[in-house]
Design brief:
This protein is α+β, with helices and mostly antiparallel strands and 295 residues long. 68% of the residues lie in helices and 11% in strands. It folds into 2 domains: 2-201, Up-down Bundle (Alpha-lytic protease prodomain-like); 208-293, Cation efflux protein, cytoplasmic domain (Alpha-Beta Plaits, 2-Layer Sandwich). The chain is built from 8 helices and 4 strands, in the order H-H-H-H-H-H-H-E-E-H-E-E. Keywords: Cell membrane, Membrane, Transmembrane, Transmembrane helix, Transport.
Length: 295
């Protein structure tokens, strides 16, 4: 978790550098499209601060009021980031309308485009770091921040192409149009971030292939038991909670049943990080006979 916090702090530094470059590009050119790119970078910095605070809260150990820990704090940060993206999109649309009704020529376009291009390359490199490290650390906040930066890279590339077209063609109305199109794209990306984060807050299950792999491992390492049923999983930040009922012969001792549970847990944790496992042992007479048959 300390590593995740350091990466989140790095995002703030990178975001401030990128914001400075993009604000300079907008100030030099007066382009509405470049303003839209700078506005999204403001969100990036704010989102980086929120992500760092969420990661610090998520690192707090479980306590009496939060016996399952504080990992879900990361999902809240991702929701807040999605809301910030939506707010930025609305601000860009307002600026685009103003630029459309009060058109102004783009000043020093080459210098502005050069500054924007440098910031875009920096964002691309850092987005790749965030996504790769976030997945390895099982951090929804870092992954969400990385995907947001990647969408920023796409919009920045589109903005650069559009500003170039304005300069070449002299059609000033293309500038606010491009800004509006950027706002719509940003709005869609914000909606996706909110959707994925709400899924985590609502205890969404892991991907189907992960659940199937869990079922397979349980079946392969539960020798001595009869079946497992009512298997349920949910995500909570870095952790995945798993629970199921394990049916054993009625005459089996508690010690032997516990040994089977230990074997299953060891196999699952050896292959999957961040698993919190709860197994309820049942005697054969309670079996539902509709679960995972033990191989």
């Amino acid at each position: 978790m300390k590593q995740a916090q350091r990466i989140a702090a790095g995002s703030i530094v990178v975001g401030l550098v990128v914001l400075g470059l993009k604000m300079a590009a907008w100030a030099i050119t007066g382009s509405a499209a470049l303003f839209s790119d700078a506005a999204e970078s403001v969100v990036n910095v704010a989102a980086g601060i929120v992500a760092l605070l969420a990661l610090r809260l998520a690192a707090v150990p479980a306590d009496a009021n939060h016996p399952y820990g504080h990992d879900k704090a990361e999902f809240f940060s991702a929701v807040i980031e999605g809301v910030l993206i939506v707010v930025a999109a609305i601000a860009i649309l307002q600026h685009a309308w103003h630029a459309y009704t009060n058109p102004q020529p783009i000043e020093a376009p080459l210098l502005g485009m050069a500054l924007n291009a440098v910031s875009t390359v920096l964002n691309l490199a850092w987005a790749m770091v965030l996504i790769r490290r976030g997945r390895r650390l099982r951090s929804p906040a870092l992954v969400a921040d990385g995907h947001h930066l990647m969408s920023d890279v796409v919009t920045s590339a589109g903005v650069l192409i559009g500003v170039g077209l304005v300069v070449v063609t002299g059609l000033q109305w293309l500038d606010p149009l491009l800004a509006a199109m950027t706002a719509v794209y940003i709005l869609a990306s914000g909606a996706l971030v909110i959707r994925d984060s709400v899924g985590g807050l609502m205890d969404a299950a892991p991907a189907a292939e992960i659940v199937e792999r869990i079922r397979t491992l349980v079946g392969q390492h539960a020798e001595g038991a009869i079946e497992a049923h009512d298997l349920r999983t949910r995500h909570a930040g870095r952790l995945t909670f798993l629970e199921f009922h394990l049916v054993v012969p009625g005459a089996m001792s508690v010690s032997d049943a516990h040994a089977i549970c230990d074997r299953i847990e060891a196999a699952l944790k050896a292959e999957m990080e961040g698993l919190m496992i709860t197994i309820h042992v049942e005697p054969e007479g309670k079996a539902k006979h509709r679960g995972i048959l033990v191989l």
